[in-house]
Amino acid sequence: MKCNCCGKDLGEFTFDIAFQLPDAIWALSEAERQQRAQFDSDLSRLDDRYFIRGVAFVPVQGTDRQFGWGIWVEIPPENFFHYAKNFNSDNRGTASFSGKAANRLLHYPDTCGITMQVQLGDQTQRPIFTSTDPQHPLTLEQANGIPLERVHAYNDR
Ligand SMILES: [Zn+2]
């Protein structure tokens, strides 16, 4: 399958873009970050706010591929501590819960603060995020998919 706008093949595009930190932590000075935040690649905290990293998948139309936004979602402390404690367990049986997206994605209206449903996975999987904000285009894209041209746009940062 080739992109209609440039003729590049599916295989020439990156299908995941990941954020190292929630925007609120990224925005801090180095000194403030050290004082107020704790983080690794999956869990982070800023003062009394708690975040987990996962993936918001968007299916690519006409293919079996999905584009994955590796983003952070702010979740309630009780869900955070449950996840942190059971990080090395199979958490697929844990009921889903909601949080708020904590990164601003390019190519969209501001995604910070939109509601995300969180489904935990097993030991090998990052949590899966699904936008439930009825006003936001990411919700529609996750439900209906995107053409390959959209993946092309996401690759031009
Ligand atoms: Zn293209």
3D architecture notes:
Strands 1, 2, 3, 4, 5, 6, 7 and 8 form an eight-stranded mixed sheet that branches. With 157 residues, the protein is of the alpha+beta class. The radius of gyration is 16 Å and the shape is globular. The protein has one domain. 23% of the residues lie in helices and 29% in strands. Bound molecules: zinc ion (ZN). Zinc ion binds at residues 3, 5-6, 8, 149, 152.
Overall pLDDT metric: 96
Based on Cα principal axes, name the global outline: globular
Radius of gyration: 16 Å
**What string gives the helices and strands in order?**
EHHEEEEHEEEHH
How many domains? 1
Instruction: State the low-pLDDT regions, or none.
Output: none
